[in-house]
Amino acid sequence: MGYSKKYLPLLLGVAVGAGIYLGSKLNFSNPSAKLFSYNAKKEKLNRLIDYIDYEYVDEINTDSIVEVTVNRILENLDPHSVYIPPEELEGITESMQGDFIGIGVSYYQYRDTIAVINTIKGGPSEKSGLLPGDRILMADTDTLFGADLTTNRLADKLKGVDNSVVKLKVYRRGTGVFDVKVRRGRVPLQSVDAAYMIAENIGYIKVNRFAETTYKEFKKALKALKKEGATAIVLDLRDNGGGFIAPALKMADEFLADDTLMMFTKNKKGAIENNFATKAGIFEQGDIYVLQNENSASASEIFAGAIQDNDRGMIVGRRSYGKGLVQREMALGDGSAVRLTISRYYTPTGRSIQKPYENGNEAYFNEYLQRYKNGELQSADSIQVADSLKFKTPGGKVVYGGGGIIPDVFVSKDTTRVGETLSYLLRSGVMGRYVFEELDKKRGYYNALPKNEFVTTFEVNTELVDGFMTYLQRRNIEVELTNYEEQLRKFLKAAMAQQLYGTDLFEKILNQDDKMIKKVISLSKRKTVY
């Protein structure tokens, strides 16, 4: 921490003072001009910190004191008011902006080199001729191989100013070492993972988060699917933890009639801000099915609530996370920021779907375990609701507040948990690294393999399956997949598709035999219309 335990009473005293100081600065009843105006009490704390800095007998890291204090204050407000240190803010901002300036490759730090997994379609590296499997050895005069590689160092060398040129030295198996110039440009961070037809008239769109570019990506996908003949849309928001509210509302606007209430917020003064559908959407007449699970949160729940409360479509899956607090990100002047809860949001019927957090952050974030113990991940009858939080939609459907969006059609979680295990192996990168090594053994063949041929004729053979199990054993990763070889084959093929062709085919393969998608297809045959 940068200081001794014997100074703990002193630090706690400063922390309390800093809490009062920061609390006074976060008084949103004042205009911004007055928010940071001179105040004798604030000045007292400033002097105390200066005295510790310049006069105290031992060296004290007052920066650490302030950072600890900020975190402690926010922890006692609510689970979603958080401090973002300077070193994390840039990455978070990029993710939510939806793009960054760079060369447009995804890569592994493989052994002691930078190995290209794939290039971003239409991005700078693809235009310059880089291929999956290439090793980037140098960027201009900087060496990018060796044991001392760091993620930050790599990012600094590959990112840069828009339209600037970087000279890369690249090694390609079968070709050798060569130079290539890449002109940096805007590289998109996809928030729409997949868009394709899952049945003759049903289009499918998967959204992984709500960033600044999400609505634009979604609208493009929706138009394309409608052109292909989609009269129903499945919007997959499973594991979508949210993001910006605006894109979620714009997306809902495409399905809702003009002047339909989509959501409203209320701050501590009771001021209400309504959000209505504002224009003619391009899918106001077609059916919509929203897929969600226990990890669908925030903006995902705003979208689902707008659809459900207006009797516009069907929510399929399990109860969502239950985050109904609205945050605003505010700079703290040193490159860091605070994401502070400023209001609550409510669905059109007036529901707050924020789950309780009075028992502290640990209990709040572990609430999933309680759902598991209660059995609600297996049975809709186990979902606990309160009659006092009962609401009715205009069509007479009963909905509940108090903790997440309860689906119209329940789909239980996989009891074998093999899907969770395989998903973990994917997310952790273990499966991806194994797949990369296997692809690298026959890189020329795989780079030239047409997509349709991969889909229709390529099979994950026993050698690949056994190789992966051996790969796990060598890394002391113990998983029991003996009876689930077919599922493992599917996940391995999906991981290969992701590296070779992108997320669209990856999701398409993973969705084969998906329980929720099967349920939607079954429901669509009943012609249930909202």
TrEMBL record:
Q: Where is the PDZ domain?
A: 99-174
Q: Which Gene3D superfamilies match?
A: 2-enoyl-CoA Hydratase, Chain A, domain 1, 2.30.42.10, 3.30.750.44
Upper classification of the source organism reads: Bacteria, Pseudomonadati, Bacteroidota, Flavobacteriia, Flavobacteriales
Q: Which residues form the Tail specific protease domain?
A: 175-356
Whether Protease counts among this entry's keywords is: yes
Single biological process term from Gene Ontology: proteolysis
The UniProt entry, under SMART domains, shows: PDZ, TSPc
State the GO CC annotations: outer membrane-bounded periplasmic space
Q: Which UniProt keywords apply?
A: Hydrolase, Membrane, Protease, Serine protease, Transmembrane, Transmembrane helix
InterPro entries registered for this protein in UniProt = ClpP/crotonase-like_dom_sf, PDZ, PDZ_sf, Peptidase_S41A, Tail-specific_protease
Q: Which GO terms describe its molecular function?
A: endopeptidase activity; serine-type peptidase activity
Transcription regulation keyword on record? no
The protein's organism comes out as Aquimarina brevivitae
What name does UniProt use for this protein? Carboxyl-terminal processing protease
Q: What residue intervals traverse the membrane?
A: 7-24
Q: Which CDD domains match?
A: Peptidase_S41_CPP
**Source superkingdom:** Bacteria
Which family does the record claim for this protein? Belongs to the peptidase S41A family.
